[in-house]
Design a protein that fits this description.
Blueprint lengths: L10 H7 L1 H11 L11 H8 L3 E6 L1 H18 L3 E5 H4 L10 E7 L5 H12 L4 E5 L5 H5 L2 E4 L12 H20 L3 H5 L2 H16 L2 H12 L4 E6 L2 H17 L2 E6 L16 E6 L5 H12 L4 E7 L9 E3 L8 H18 L18
Parallel strand pairs: 1-2, 1-3, 3-4, 4-5, 6-7, 6-8, 8-9, 9-10
Helix pairs in contact: 2-8, 2-10, 4-8, 4-12, 10-14, 11-14, 12-14
The protein binds 2-deoxy-2-amino glucitol-6-phosphate (AGP).
Length: 362
Protein backbone atom coordinates (compact mmCIF):
# COMPACT_ATOMS: atom_id res chain seq x y z
CA UNK A 1 0.00 0.00 0.00
CA UNK A 2 0.96 3.65 -0.25
CA UNK A 3 1.40 3.77 3.52
CA UNK A 4 4.07 1.08 3.32
CA UNK A 5 7.60 2.24 4.02
CA UNK A 6 9.00 -0.40 1.68
CA UNK A 7 12.77 -0.63 1.95
CA UNK A 8 13.03 2.60 3.93
CA UNK A 9 14.17 2.37 7.56
CA UNK A 10 11.69 5.08 8.59
CA UNK A 11 8.54 6.69 7.26
CA UNK A 12 10.10 10.11 7.66
CA UNK A 13 12.87 9.38 5.18
CA UNK A 14 10.41 7.92 2.69
CA UNK A 15 8.15 10.95 3.08
CA UNK A 16 11.08 13.33 2.52
CA UNK A 17 11.91 11.40 -0.65
CA UNK A 18 8.26 11.50 -1.81
CA UNK A 19 8.37 15.28 -2.19
CA UNK A 20 9.47 15.58 -5.85
CA UNK A 21 6.62 13.23 -6.82
CA UNK A 22 4.13 15.22 -4.75
CA UNK A 23 5.16 18.46 -6.50
CA UNK A 24 4.69 16.87 -9.93
CA UNK A 25 1.37 15.41 -8.91
CA UNK A 26 0.08 18.80 -7.76
CA UNK A 27 1.18 20.31 -11.08
CA UNK A 28 -0.99 17.69 -12.80
CA UNK A 29 -3.96 17.93 -10.47
CA UNK A 30 -4.49 21.68 -10.41
CA UNK A 31 -3.58 22.65 -13.99
CA UNK A 32 -5.55 21.86 -17.15
CA UNK A 33 -4.14 20.72 -20.50
CA UNK A 34 -3.60 24.33 -21.57
CA UNK A 35 -1.43 24.92 -18.55
CA UNK A 36 -4.05 27.11 -16.85
CA UNK A 37 -4.40 26.89 -13.09
CA UNK A 38 -7.84 25.55 -12.18
CA UNK A 39 -9.64 25.68 -8.87
CA UNK A 40 -13.35 25.36 -8.06
CA UNK A 41 -15.36 28.27 -9.55
CA UNK A 42 -17.48 28.91 -6.49
CA UNK A 43 -14.41 28.85 -4.27
CA UNK A 44 -12.73 31.35 -6.57
CA UNK A 45 -15.77 33.65 -6.49
CA UNK A 46 -15.88 33.47 -2.69
CA UNK A 47 -12.17 34.27 -2.46
CA UNK A 48 -12.65 37.24 -4.79
CA UNK A 49 -15.33 38.73 -2.60
CA UNK A 50 -13.16 38.50 0.51
CA UNK A 51 -11.37 41.62 1.69
CA UNK A 52 -9.00 39.64 3.93
CA UNK A 53 -7.90 36.03 4.23
CA UNK A 54 -7.40 34.38 7.60
CA UNK A 55 -5.23 31.27 7.55
CA UNK A 56 -5.75 29.18 10.67
CA UNK A 57 -3.54 26.22 11.57
CA UNK A 58 -1.21 24.63 14.13
CA UNK A 59 2.43 23.58 14.19
CA UNK A 60 3.97 22.82 10.82
CA UNK A 61 0.70 23.69 9.08
CA UNK A 62 0.83 27.13 10.72
CA UNK A 63 4.35 27.53 9.38
CA UNK A 64 3.06 26.73 5.89
CA UNK A 65 0.42 29.40 6.56
CA UNK A 66 3.15 31.96 7.25
CA UNK A 67 4.52 31.29 3.78
CA UNK A 68 0.96 31.45 2.41
CA UNK A 69 0.50 34.90 3.93
CA UNK A 70 3.30 36.16 1.70
CA UNK A 71 2.08 34.26 -1.38
CA UNK A 72 -1.46 35.65 -1.15
CA UNK A 73 -0.29 39.19 -0.52
CA UNK A 74 2.27 39.23 -3.32
CA UNK A 75 0.37 37.27 -6.01
CA UNK A 76 -3.21 38.20 -5.25
CA UNK A 77 -2.70 41.52 -3.42
CA UNK A 78 -5.20 40.48 -0.76
CA UNK A 79 -4.36 41.22 2.89
CA UNK A 80 -3.70 37.88 4.61
CA UNK A 81 -3.04 36.89 8.20
CA UNK A 82 -1.82 33.51 9.40
CA UNK A 83 -2.89 32.55 12.91
CA UNK A 84 -2.18 29.79 15.39
CA UNK A 85 -5.55 28.13 15.86
CA UNK A 86 -5.32 27.73 19.66
CA UNK A 87 -4.73 31.48 19.94
CA UNK A 88 -7.35 32.48 17.39
CA UNK A 89 -10.00 30.48 19.23
CA UNK A 90 -9.77 32.47 22.44
CA UNK A 91 -7.96 35.67 21.47
CA UNK A 92 -9.34 36.35 18.04
CA UNK A 93 -8.42 39.51 16.13
CA UNK A 94 -10.98 42.08 14.97
CA UNK A 95 -12.21 40.64 11.70
CA UNK A 96 -12.50 42.53 8.43
CA UNK A 97 -15.91 43.17 6.81
CA UNK A 98 -15.71 40.18 4.44
CA UNK A 99 -13.34 37.62 5.89
CA UNK A 100 -12.62 34.26 4.29
CA UNK A 101 -11.00 31.47 6.28
CA UNK A 102 -8.44 28.94 5.13
CA UNK A 103 -7.79 25.99 7.42
CA UNK A 104 -4.54 24.15 6.83
CA UNK A 105 -4.45 20.70 8.39
CA UNK A 106 -2.62 17.60 7.22
CA UNK A 107 -4.87 15.32 9.27
CA UNK A 108 -8.00 17.42 9.14
CA UNK A 109 -8.61 16.46 12.76
CA UNK A 110 -6.73 19.03 14.85
CA UNK A 111 -9.01 20.03 17.74
CA UNK A 112 -7.62 23.57 18.06
CA UNK A 113 -8.48 24.28 14.43
CA UNK A 114 -11.89 22.63 14.71
CA UNK A 115 -12.71 24.95 17.59
CA UNK A 116 -12.17 27.93 15.29
CA UNK A 117 -14.08 26.41 12.38
CA UNK A 118 -17.12 25.75 14.58
CA UNK A 119 -17.17 29.44 15.48
CA UNK A 120 -16.61 30.51 11.85
CA UNK A 121 -19.58 28.37 10.79
CA UNK A 122 -21.74 29.73 13.59
CA UNK A 123 -21.06 33.25 12.32
CA UNK A 124 -21.97 32.23 8.76
CA UNK A 125 -18.53 32.88 7.24
CA UNK A 126 -17.19 30.75 4.42
CA UNK A 127 -14.08 28.64 4.58
CA UNK A 128 -11.74 26.30 2.79
CA UNK A 129 -9.94 23.35 4.36
CA UNK A 130 -6.71 22.26 2.71
CA UNK A 131 -6.00 18.75 3.96
CA UNK A 132 -4.29 15.50 3.14
CA UNK A 133 -7.16 13.36 4.37
CA UNK A 134 -10.31 13.14 2.31
CA UNK A 135 -13.49 13.26 4.41
CA UNK A 136 -11.59 14.38 7.49
CA UNK A 137 -13.59 16.37 10.03
CA UNK A 138 -12.22 19.79 9.05
CA UNK A 139 -12.85 19.07 5.38
CA UNK A 140 -16.44 18.01 6.04
CA UNK A 141 -17.17 21.04 8.21
CA UNK A 142 -15.72 23.70 5.87
CA UNK A 143 -17.51 25.21 2.87
CA UNK A 144 -14.84 23.95 0.45
CA UNK A 145 -12.02 21.40 0.48
CA UNK A 146 -8.83 21.02 -1.49
CA UNK A 147 -6.63 17.96 -1.19
CA UNK A 148 -2.86 17.89 -0.79
CA UNK A 149 -2.61 14.58 -2.64
CA UNK A 150 0.64 13.90 -0.81
CA UNK A 151 -0.17 10.29 0.03
CA UNK A 152 -0.37 9.12 3.66
CA UNK A 153 1.98 10.91 6.05
CA UNK A 154 2.78 8.55 8.92
CA UNK A 155 5.86 10.03 10.64
CA UNK A 156 4.89 12.39 13.45
CA UNK A 157 7.26 15.02 12.04
CA UNK A 158 5.48 16.50 9.05
CA UNK A 159 7.54 16.90 5.88
CA UNK A 160 5.71 16.37 2.59
CA UNK A 161 2.48 17.86 3.92
CA UNK A 162 4.34 21.14 4.56
CA UNK A 163 5.70 21.42 1.02
CA UNK A 164 2.36 20.29 -0.45
CA UNK A 165 0.50 22.92 1.60
CA UNK A 166 2.78 25.65 0.29
CA UNK A 167 2.36 24.45 -3.29
CA UNK A 168 -1.44 24.41 -2.94
CA UNK A 169 -1.39 27.91 -1.44
CA UNK A 170 0.66 29.06 -4.43
CA UNK A 171 -1.92 27.46 -6.75
CA UNK A 172 -4.81 29.27 -5.05
CA UNK A 173 -2.92 32.56 -4.87
CA UNK A 174 -2.15 32.39 -8.58
CA UNK A 175 -5.76 31.55 -9.47
CA UNK A 176 -7.05 34.40 -7.31
CA UNK A 177 -4.45 36.87 -8.58
CA UNK A 178 -5.23 36.01 -12.19
CA UNK A 179 -8.97 36.40 -11.55
CA UNK A 180 -8.35 39.90 -10.21
CA UNK A 181 -5.87 40.82 -12.98
CA UNK A 182 -2.74 41.00 -10.87
CA UNK A 183 0.39 41.30 -12.98
CA UNK A 184 2.41 39.38 -10.38
CA UNK A 185 0.07 36.41 -10.74
CA UNK A 186 0.12 36.48 -14.54
CA UNK A 187 3.94 36.59 -14.50
CA UNK A 188 4.21 33.75 -11.99
CA UNK A 189 4.92 30.70 -14.13
CA UNK A 190 3.78 28.21 -11.54
CA UNK A 191 3.40 24.98 -13.49
CA UNK A 192 6.92 24.91 -14.97
CA UNK A 193 8.22 26.25 -11.65
CA UNK A 194 6.78 23.21 -9.84
CA UNK A 195 8.82 21.06 -12.24
CA UNK A 196 11.97 23.02 -11.35
CA UNK A 197 11.11 22.66 -7.68
CA UNK A 198 10.72 18.88 -8.07
CA UNK A 199 14.16 18.69 -9.71
CA UNK A 200 15.67 20.94 -7.05
CA UNK A 201 14.29 18.76 -4.24
CA UNK A 202 15.58 15.64 -6.01
CA UNK A 203 19.08 17.13 -6.22
CA UNK A 204 19.00 17.63 -2.43
CA UNK A 205 17.61 14.24 -1.43
CA UNK A 206 20.30 12.68 -3.63
CA UNK A 207 22.94 14.12 -1.27
CA UNK A 208 21.92 12.25 1.86
CA UNK A 209 25.47 11.32 2.96
CA UNK A 210 26.32 14.96 3.01
CA UNK A 211 23.49 15.87 5.38
CA UNK A 212 24.31 12.85 7.52
CA UNK A 213 27.86 14.20 7.85
CA UNK A 214 26.58 17.65 8.82
CA UNK A 215 24.33 16.04 11.45
CA UNK A 216 27.25 14.04 12.84
CA UNK A 217 29.82 16.85 12.84
CA UNK A 218 27.70 19.84 13.82
CA UNK A 219 24.44 18.81 15.52
CA UNK A 220 24.54 15.54 17.45
CA UNK A 221 26.55 16.94 20.38
CA UNK A 222 24.87 20.33 20.54
CA UNK A 223 22.44 21.62 23.14
CA UNK A 224 21.08 24.53 21.10
CA UNK A 225 20.73 25.35 17.41
CA UNK A 226 19.39 28.32 15.49
CA UNK A 227 17.93 28.83 12.05
CA UNK A 228 17.80 32.44 10.94
CA UNK A 229 16.38 34.31 7.96
CA UNK A 230 14.35 37.31 6.87
CA UNK A 231 10.89 37.41 5.30
CA UNK A 232 9.97 34.12 3.70
CA UNK A 233 13.31 32.68 4.90
CA UNK A 234 12.31 33.53 8.47
CA UNK A 235 9.05 31.62 7.98
CA UNK A 236 11.08 28.59 6.90
CA UNK A 237 13.49 29.07 9.84
CA UNK A 238 10.57 28.50 12.21
CA UNK A 239 9.67 25.23 10.51
CA UNK A 240 13.31 24.09 10.25
CA UNK A 241 13.69 24.69 13.97
CA UNK A 242 10.46 22.83 14.84
CA UNK A 243 11.66 19.85 12.78
CA UNK A 244 14.91 19.75 14.70
CA UNK A 245 13.44 20.06 18.20
CA UNK A 246 10.64 17.55 17.59
CA UNK A 247 12.79 14.58 16.71
CA UNK A 248 16.27 15.37 18.14
CA UNK A 249 15.25 17.07 21.41
CA UNK A 250 17.88 19.72 20.76
CA UNK A 251 16.67 23.13 21.87
CA UNK A 252 16.19 25.08 18.70
CA UNK A 253 14.80 28.45 17.67
CA UNK A 254 13.92 30.02 14.38
CA UNK A 255 14.88 33.66 14.65
CA UNK A 256 14.23 36.66 12.42
CA UNK A 257 17.84 37.41 11.52
CA UNK A 258 17.56 41.05 12.55
CA UNK A 259 16.21 40.09 15.97
CA UNK A 260 19.29 38.09 17.01
CA UNK A 261 21.04 41.13 18.36
CA UNK A 262 17.96 42.00 20.42
CA UNK A 263 18.34 38.95 22.63
CA UNK A 264 18.89 35.46 21.23
CA UNK A 265 22.56 36.11 20.42
CA UNK A 266 23.21 35.86 24.18
CA UNK A 267 22.71 32.08 23.82
CA UNK A 268 25.55 31.60 21.31
CA UNK A 269 28.36 29.45 22.66
CA UNK A 270 31.39 27.90 21.08
CA UNK A 271 30.18 25.52 18.35
CA UNK A 272 26.46 26.42 18.52
CA UNK A 273 25.12 25.84 15.00
CA UNK A 274 23.53 28.87 13.37
CA UNK A 275 22.08 28.14 9.95
CA UNK A 276 21.29 31.08 7.72
CA UNK A 277 18.62 30.69 5.05
CA UNK A 278 19.33 33.14 2.23
CA UNK A 279 17.11 33.28 -0.85
CA UNK A 280 15.96 36.89 -1.14
CA UNK A 281 18.26 39.27 -2.96
CA UNK A 282 17.02 42.31 -1.06
CA UNK A 283 18.06 40.99 2.35
CA UNK A 284 20.88 38.54 1.58
CA UNK A 285 23.74 40.77 2.70
CA UNK A 286 21.92 41.76 5.90
CA UNK A 287 21.43 38.11 6.90
CA UNK A 288 25.07 37.41 6.07
CA UNK A 289 26.15 40.17 8.48
CA UNK A 290 23.90 38.73 11.19
CA UNK A 291 25.53 35.32 10.69
CA UNK A 292 28.98 36.90 10.95
CA UNK A 293 27.97 38.56 14.23
CA UNK A 294 27.23 35.12 15.72
CA UNK A 295 30.46 33.66 14.26
CA UNK A 296 32.39 36.40 16.08
CA UNK A 297 30.90 34.91 19.29
CA UNK A 298 32.00 31.37 18.45
CA UNK A 299 29.01 29.93 16.61
CA UNK A 300 29.42 27.41 13.82
CA UNK A 301 27.68 29.04 10.88
CA UNK A 302 26.21 27.30 7.88
CA UNK A 303 24.34 28.72 4.91
CA UNK A 304 21.48 27.43 2.77
CA UNK A 305 21.54 29.66 -0.32
CA UNK A 306 20.01 29.75 -3.79
CA UNK A 307 22.52 29.45 -6.64
CA UNK A 308 22.17 33.00 -7.95
CA UNK A 309 23.00 34.45 -4.51
CA UNK A 310 25.73 31.94 -3.63
CA UNK A 311 29.30 32.87 -2.76
CA UNK A 312 32.39 30.68 -2.72
CA UNK A 313 32.19 29.91 1.01
CA UNK A 314 28.50 28.94 1.09
CA UNK A 315 27.59 25.45 2.30
CA UNK A 316 24.33 24.21 0.81
CA UNK A 317 23.51 25.59 -2.62
CA UNK A 318 20.01 25.21 -4.05
CA UNK A 319 18.76 25.32 -7.61
CA UNK A 320 17.22 28.67 -8.53
CA UNK A 321 13.44 28.77 -8.42
CA UNK A 322 11.00 31.68 -8.19
CA UNK A 323 11.75 33.69 -5.02
CA UNK A 324 8.29 32.87 -3.69
CA UNK A 325 8.80 29.11 -3.99
CA UNK A 326 12.18 28.86 -2.27
CA UNK A 327 10.63 27.43 0.95
CA UNK A 328 9.97 24.25 -1.04
CA UNK A 329 13.74 23.82 -1.35
CA UNK A 330 15.20 25.49 1.74
CA UNK A 331 13.28 23.22 4.11
CA UNK A 332 14.73 20.02 2.61
CA UNK A 333 18.26 20.26 4.09
CA UNK A 334 16.68 21.02 7.48
CA UNK A 335 14.42 17.95 7.22
CA UNK A 336 17.38 15.74 6.36
CA UNK A 337 19.69 17.19 9.02
CA UNK A 338 16.96 16.63 11.64
CA UNK A 339 16.38 13.08 10.42
CA UNK A 340 20.05 12.09 10.59
CA UNK A 341 20.64 13.82 13.92
CA UNK A 342 17.72 11.90 15.44
CA UNK A 343 18.97 8.67 13.91
CA UNK A 344 22.55 9.19 15.12
CA UNK A 345 21.27 9.96 18.63
CA UNK A 346 19.45 6.63 18.57
CA UNK A 347 16.03 8.22 18.99
CA UNK A 348 12.66 7.07 17.71
CA UNK A 349 12.57 9.14 14.51
CA UNK A 350 9.00 8.40 13.48
CA UNK A 351 7.46 8.49 16.95
CA UNK A 352 9.24 11.10 19.07
CA UNK A 353 8.44 11.28 22.78
CA UNK A 354 5.46 13.30 24.02
CA UNK A 355 4.01 13.91 20.55
CA UNK A 356 1.01 12.55 18.64
CA UNK A 357 0.48 12.62 14.88
CA UNK A 358 -2.82 14.35 15.16
CA UNK A 359 -3.70 16.35 18.22
CA UNK A 360 -7.38 15.88 18.99
CA UNK A 361 -7.42 17.63 22.35
CA UNK A 362 -7.34 21.40 22.94
C1 LIG B 1 4.57 18.65 12.66
O1 LIG B 1 5.82 18.10 12.52
C2 LIG B 1 3.93 18.42 13.97
N1 LIG B 1 3.91 17.06 14.36
C3 LIG B 1 2.69 19.23 14.28
O2 LIG B 1 3.15 20.52 14.53
C4 LIG B 1 1.52 19.29 13.27
O3 LIG B 1 1.92 20.00 12.14
C5 LIG B 1 0.31 19.96 13.95
O4 LIG B 1 -0.12 19.18 15.03
C6 LIG B 1 -0.83 20.22 12.99
O5 LIG B 1 -1.36 19.04 12.49
P1 LIG B 1 -2.37 19.04 11.29
O6 LIG B 1 -1.67 19.62 10.10
O7 LIG B 1 -2.76 17.60 11.09
O8 LIG B 1 -3.55 19.90 11.69
Amino acid sequence: SEADKGTYPHYMLKEIDDQPTVMRKLAQTYFNDDGQVTIDDELLADLQSADRLYIVAAGTSYHAGLVGERLFERLAAVPTEAHVSSEFAYNSPILSKHPFFIFLSQSGETADSREVLTEVNAKGYHSLTITNVQNSTLSREATYTMLLNAGPEIAVASTKAYTAQIAVEAIIAKALGEATQQVAAADFDLRPQLGLVANGIQALVDQKERFEAVAKDNFVDQRDAFYIGRGIDYAVSLEASLKLKEITYIHSEGVAAGELKHGPIALIESGTPVIGIITQERTASLTRSNLAETAARGSHIMTIVTKSLAKAHDDIILEDVDEMLTPLLTIIPAQLISYYTSLLKGLDVDKPRNLAKSVTVQ
